[in-house]
Protein 1
Amino acid sequence: MNLSMLGLTTTFSLTLLASAVVPAAANARPNASASADLPFEVKAVGTFKSPWSMAFLPNGNLLVTQKEGELILFDPATGSKRTVSGTPAVSSKDQGALMDIVPAPDFAASKLLYFSYSETGSGASSRVVLATATLDQASAALKGTKAIFRGQDASTGGHYSGRIAFSPDGKYLFFTSGDRQLLDPAQDPKSTLGKVLRLNLDGTPAAANPLAARGFHAAVWSYGHRNLLGIAFDKQGRLWEMEMGPRHGDEINLIKPGLNYGWPRASNGNHYDGRDIPDHTRGDGFEAPKVSWNPAISPGGLAYYDAELFPKWKNSLFITGLSGKSLDRISLDGENATKADHWDMGERIRAVRTGPDGALWVLEDGPRGRLLMLTPKR
């Protein structure tokens, strides 16, 4: 998400980062910048074990989550990495992971982090968890870790989602809860699965959520979603969401309170076994995506961009592709979204963030996933 919304500032410069000490392993593979088609320089800054997400801290350090549950405190200026202690037990089977991580709006004073992960439930089932903890950077430790929301203990499947965004005023937390590959709960008013949730900062349902009076779970903001892997506010305060479709039909949605986005009754893709799903059509009662992909790119992450380093890309969404091995730019104009650019990155891309200086930072997927810094070509 756009880190300027969190009020994070930093004094480290692009020049310092560009001269960062890079571990030798970071450049072990051919660099994507070898392609003349890319409109940016690509610098490998570090290598991680199946990284999942990342967050910048005010001093320029990065927190990187890894699939098996490790949280890494990384200094991009020196390449140093420290494993943060105090993380909870993570069920990393299949799609399970230590997932998203976002500093609190008042992190500079509170040192509070919000993060999500998958944990073992009853029997063989599992669930998504939203938690908080304070970060002691000096000792690389989480303290006072507390689960503030738990998804329903309902599935042995994937689709945890678990993406986090704070409202622009910093008063509310929006959290994505996937359908856990169960489909129908996305339409179930009593379930939190397949939903965007609006919570208070302590994890309780926010007051006056739009569907509570209709008998929905009190936390539900919108419903009819599948696997929601990105969520971010734009500069006008609109909430954008990205989700992975079934067999094709990946989506970008403009999230509005109380609306039904159709899953599994409508999708621009089909079931993996080839069964048809009705496409979104005008008048079907479902909110259609603003952008969709067929064939799929298997999106892994989303970031909103409105920085000065790439001025032509202000007010854009950036989407990473796993099967697509890509980075896509979506141009925004009010409530409209348009596919603008598609770049072949040569590797599965898991996550993207806007850096404090306006550079784009992306994480490759896999056991030796690189952290890449994208800056304008000279």
Protein 2
Amino acid sequence: MGHDHAHGASGTGLRHRGTLLVVLGLSVTVLVVQAVVAVITGSLALLADAAHMLSDSFGLVLAIAAITVAQRGGAPGSRRTFGYHRTEVLAAGLNGLILLALCTWIVVQAVGRLSDAPEIAGLPVLVAGVVGLAVNVIGLVLLRAGAEESLNVRGAYLEVLGDALGSVAVIGSAAVILLTGWYVADPIASLLIAVFIVPRAFSLLKDVAEVLLEGSPKDVDLVELRSHILGMDGVIDVHDLHVWTITSGMPVMSAHVVVDETIVGMGHAHEVLDQLGECLSDHFDVEHSTFQIEPVGHVDSEGHVHH
């Protein structure tokens, strides 16, 4: 016997699509400016920051595309009963892999320049770095609220944050070159940008893996959840309790609930299901839940391991 709560047609990412589009426009603009200046000056740090911005832009495109697919193709079907909501998670995973590949390229290029750093015009690099930092700060402000709700928006937020730190590194290296003429500051700044990228990439990939491996959401305490279920009138036990995430902001749950002899008909079972559904929605933000109501002793006739 099941009890379902409707979930959003496209997850939490949909309402943030407009913000992502604005940040994408800003990122592409800065990307072009930084790439042109990097080619003219020969700055690896600025080129690395531009490459990181390219990854940011590609990640934003993936996020927007995933949200659009989830909206237009998210309706359940005979083969995909939860629709295409996990396209958002797959896009975030691809974004994380791109970040790691980008980091490898930066490190190889920077190490090669440590022993023979070319001369670089510091002033244009400094100006491009300041412009990049200003735009990144604007992007962080725009994405901050959505980063708490959507995995893909969080991925975009972390990328913009890392790119802001990269812009700081570019500004620092350009200042050192202008003041001292020490051109090795440029590849060193490139290595610092790589250091910014790696932890964020692994963090994003870890979160994606948790969703794909159907781990329990971090904000759902299974012990507390079980306690709430057992606190319902007529419920004496619960087993086969599973909680997982379809995409960011869409946790789902299923459980076998054992009821006592006072639950004698569909009317009584309906009341129990309503109470359970309301409890999960109100206390644990689980809008999609499925319960199997069982009489005492039914568990002994089931031929699988219980949890």
